[in-house]
Amino acid sequence: MANKLAPHSATPSPNRSEATLIPLTKRLEMYRLLSLTRQAEQRAFDLFLQNQIKGTSHLSLGQEAVAAGAAAAMQPGDLSFCTYRGHAHTLARGVPVEKVLGELMGRDNGLMRGKGGSMHLTSVEHGVMGSYAIIGAHLPIACGAAWRAQYKGHKDVSVCFFGDGTTNIGAFHEALNFAACMKLPVVFVCENNLYMEYTPIADVIPVQYPAADRAAAYGLDRIVIDGNDVDVVYETLSQAYAKARAGHGPSLVECLTYRYSGHSRADPAKYRPAGELEKWKERDPVKAYRKRLGALGVADAKLDAIDAEILKIIDEATQACQAAPPTSTDILFTDVYADGGCAWRN
After folding, report:
1. Which of 48, 107, 112, 218 could link 102 by a cystine bridge, Cβ 3.0 to 4.6 Å?
2. How far apart are alpha carbons 110 and 103 in whole angstroms?
3. Tell me, which fold does domain 24-332 have in CATH?
4. Per-residue pLDDT tens for 154-201?
5. What is the pLDDT of residues 117-140, one digit of tens each?
């Protein structure tokens, strides 16, 4: 089946604007988040090639605008629920680079002292309520957190990120149904990068947009946006968060984007049509936003300074992680099984 979501046929949300009312300070904050997530993920890739990160991990190079725009629109106390592709979302909520890289490298200075690894990043302090390796498992959990806020009269919003493949999982439909019926303060964000693990999402769905085209079944608006445009992500999610905070229930937002690498480090992504990657790179979210800021009068030197500052942070974080000790066995071998130990019981 031909891919229904060609890179230049992505349908923007009908409420898209040129985002002229976004303050420059917020725009510069989003550029910083774009640069941070791009450079940190690239460093993670480089460290993997140097055999300093073991196992595998799932990068979101190319998808930075979703994490940056979503985080920039959040308020302190809002909660993020991520997938295994959660590095960018974790960094965008303010978790230090050293903590993330340390976790990926299995070092004691990592976010969970190296025990969780790439797919389980969690920082309650920063509102990052876990990265979930089980497809769709976090959608009902996000509903539970939102139900708690509703019950207690709190104003925080739960924001749940997931990939296009999750829309074929039962938990997706159960969570949407429950959230809509209970009018929960939760926002579901589908990062549609066209592919599940190795399968084009277009091959296994009967509709064009896997999330948005199913929204009507739960009484929700159909929202499809350009997930490579950080202004559009910021504006759309700002509206969705405000709706949730005001007690008017959930939203489902589908962001059209693209991952530059394969599903994981072990995937060369040879299943993609020739030229598809190159077409999407013409709409690179970091380069596009830099160009937009230039058109708004921001000097290249200012943006260069932001990039340089972030590179320095990443370099220092890398050095700290390389110098940190590996996770000790007393940490690795504790709380593996229900009895608190690591010995297998048959």
Report:
1. 107
2. 4
3. Rossmann fold (3.40.50)
4. 999 999 999 999 999 999 999 999 999 999 999 999 999 999 999 999
5. 999 999 999 999 999 999 999 999
Which of 2-16, 178-192, 232-246 is predicted least confidently? 2-16
| pTM score, whole prediction | 0.93
Nearest one of 88, 91, 40, 92 to 60, comparing CA atoms = 88
pLDDT band at 64 (very low <50, low <70, confident <90, very high): very high
